[in-house]
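Bump. Still looking for LPS export ABC transporter permease LptG structure tokens.
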Amino acid sequence: MQFDFFPSRTLTLYLAKMFAARIVAMLFVLVLVLMMLDLLSNSGKILAVAGNGQGELLTYAGLRIPQLISRFLPYSVLLATLITLVTLNQNSEVIAMKAAGLSAHQVLAPLLLTAGLVSLFTFAFNERVVTRATETLKAWEAVDYGPIPTESGVRANVYLNDNGNILTAAYLAGTGEAIAMRKVTWYERNAEGMIVEQIDADRAVYANPGWRLEGVTRFRVQSALTDTPQAMVVGEGLTPDQIDLAKIDSDAEPFWELTRSIAEFESAGRRTDELRAKWWHKISGPLSAFLMPLLGAVAAFGLARSGQLFVRAIIGMALGFAYFVVDNAALAMGSFGGYPPFLAAWAPFLLFLLIGETVLVRTEE
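Sorry for the wait, here they are.
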């Protein structure tokens, strides 16, 4: 009986290489199929813009693929786990390893090591690539796939309240007094909350105080008249500091930048439960890949000739997908304030870690 956590070096490399190859293969298939379906549904919107062509489709694919990789890499690890373990079981390799004195945990150790490296890669990939791609893609979608905004600090679909009046912008860029908004709409409301005036503008910049609208079209509700003033100033109660804190997109901000944003929100007395839950999930989310070999381990053991191998594979797949369902539900509850942020991000991981260990120990150890 061996007391080392890992089997021999040769066996560890053999299992790790086999597992890694299947992860890459499953990820390639999933991303290829989903990217084709995504292009089928969005290519019409992209090509509807004058001047857009094959280059813009490739740009869209380049921005979308990192999101697909980040989202479906844990699923790829789960599917690769099941394929690898079922293959080892059918070829009686698991029986040979257990006959040599290896425990169930030692058989799984190379897979857990590989999955742990995948989790580290996922975290780094999310922070360095996915956040930037998400920020650019959302800004591009905000302008209906027109010219891609080149400004820094872009945020899409901004909504601001100024004493009952509403200012919306398709996107804004910059910080402080250098903020510039595009595709702006100002809704002026009376004391009863009814809209009395709607002003659409191509651009808005800070006028200290207020925001100067350019390219204006104004519609007065009571008289049903439309005019085009040269410029207007609205939202004098809105400051650049308020707009900087108006919207934080946790998917488009890296971990350390989101940490600073949460601190600024808290110093301003704003609610941060949703952002805290997403902050914790930036760590627990990538770790889901590490959990998949443990949840799929039920497919590795038991006699292949007993007729229960298929049932075991289904159980492993059900455990894996149940984790993703519970994880998404808990994160949604955390966003609404139903769960504390830490519990919303970590409870599913810890729960299914215990479930996977319990199933493995009760059935095989």
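The mean pLDDT is 85.

Edit: fixed formatting.
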